[in-house]
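sorry for the late reply, my laptop died twice this morning and i had to redo everyting from scratch. anyway the thing you sent over, i finally got around to it. pasting the sequence first so we're on the same page, its 287 residues, then the predicted structure underneath. double check i copied it right bc i was rushing
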Amino acid sequence: MKEVNELLELLKLEPIEWNLFRGLSHSVGSQSVFGGQVLAQALSAAMQTIPEGRFVHSLHAYFILPGDLEIPIVFDVDRIRDGGSFTTRRIRAIQRGQVILNMSASFQKPEEGFDHQIEMPKVSGPDDLPSWEDLGRQFGDVLPENFKRFFDRDRPIEFRPVELHNPFDNEKYEPLRHVWMRARGTMPHDKTAHQLVLAYASDYNLLTTSLLPHGEHGSFWKLQLASLDHAMWFHRDFRIDDWLLYAIDSPSASNARGFTRGNIFSRDGKLVASVVQEGLIRQKNSN
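ok and here's the structure:
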């Protein structure tokens, strides 16, 4: 089973010139670079240019082109501003001279201020829930081949869904999903490492939530799905090697796009991060 240390190595980029960094690609069972990977690598590139003692509080990214798994990705960091409290960076991920991702990220030194948050949803805890791998072993003989491949993928993050949806029915569900997640293995104490791994993990489970009201949750392999943009805010400290609850909803789908939101809570109820994403949802046989 892949552990998180392998992901952390992937997120260690090679400096090749002033503000230029090179990263490798890795497959998670798809034909192109996983969006969460290039997102986290772009953030990692920016972090190498940040004054000490400042940490990412928000990022906004557009996925422009699919990434090629066979060649490295070059990350070009533009040092927009270093202010008294905030630092701003713009990052471009490049392959074959073309930009595949464009990101802006803002960093802040910690400071005191007002503090409130929404309440964590009341759902089953992770201890007695099956993981994706457990589901694959338990139902592997009856699952469609595409689901078997999905559950069998080797990932550095363990996911335990609260709601289980039957892949054989066409039932329509509320566009809500709750998934517990944590890194496999032990993480370092470095706060930035936890932020990078959470950025990677945040790209899972979002877009498919938009399929739940349409009875397509078991046939998404027949669809063209692609992340278009991704925004993320980091609110409070956390550890990604302890369980986090990803509470996701999809307020809207229209114009071949699904819109999703996610709040991420620590096991003791702290809201640690929030995510918004819009993605392409298109029938593969449509024009």
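The two ends are 40 Å apart (CA to CA).
thats about all i looked at so far, will dig more tmrw
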